[in-house]
Amino acid sequence: GAVVSQHPSRVICKSGTSVKIECRSLDFQATTMFWYRQFPKQSLMLMATSNEGSKATYEQGVEKDKFLINHASLTLSTLTVTSAHPEDSSFYICSAPGTSGGRGETQYFGPGTRLLVL
Amino acid sequence: AQKVTQAQTEISVVEKEDVTLDCVYETRDTTYYLFWYKQPPSGELVFLIRRNSFDEQNEISGRYSWNFQKSTSSFNFTITASQVVDSAVYFCALPSSGAGSYQLTFGKGTKLSVIP
Questions:
Q1: Do A91 and B33 count as a contact with CB atoms less than 8 A apart?
Q2: pLDDT tens, B5-22?
Q3: Closest Cα in chain A to B92
Q4: Interface of A with B in 14-33 (CB under 8 A)
Q5: What pLDDT digit, counting tens, does each position of A21-64 carry?
Q6: Of chain B residues 2-61, which have a CB less than 8 A from chain A?
Q7: What pLDDT does residue B99 have?
Q8: CB-based contacts of A50, cutoff 8 Å, min separation 6
């Protein structure tokens, strides 16, 4: 199956700093990637849809100025948490659909990034 | 809007027991897909199965089997002869409807603990 990587896997930062998380599709191209957030013992909640060559689409309640998304190429999307605060501490996971991108296409998930803001 | 309900929050079984994880969904789409993912303690999501709404045949993959009942909007997952390595959170998911990107709507997940 397709492989999606994320970097870093874990990050601890001080409140007020910015953190960049990378999501890469290793063996396929992804014009669309999705960013999810998962708080402890909760489900995955979609934050935004990252589109190659255009602006990201954010879900209701997600601050686009705080969570900057850049889909620079067909294999890379980045999520930058700006001025991070303790309430941003969470598990961030990206995904990319397989080749067809259709509704039935399997989503392949990265291993996730655990963010802890002190 | 799509909705996925996994009523079982946590389940504990003793190793070698069979266990069924329930998933009930809501959609207005006439055709749709359903997914199951496994999330072990490491956090990564592992794809288990994709099912097309056209195909109501049950599917078996080793110790895993899935029972899709369109009439009751359920897509239940059974693990036979459970093992400790099966301990994880299991999510049922449904892609969004309409045109555009097809992000997944997840259920709240069922945490399965298999006790040796």
A1: no
A2: 999 999 999 999 999 999
A3: A43
A4: 32
A5: 999 999 888 889 999 999 998 999 999 999 888 899 999 999 99
A6: 32-33, 35, 37, 42-45, 47, 50, 52
A7: 58
A8: A23, A32, A33, A34, A35, A56, A69, A70, A71, A77, A79, A94
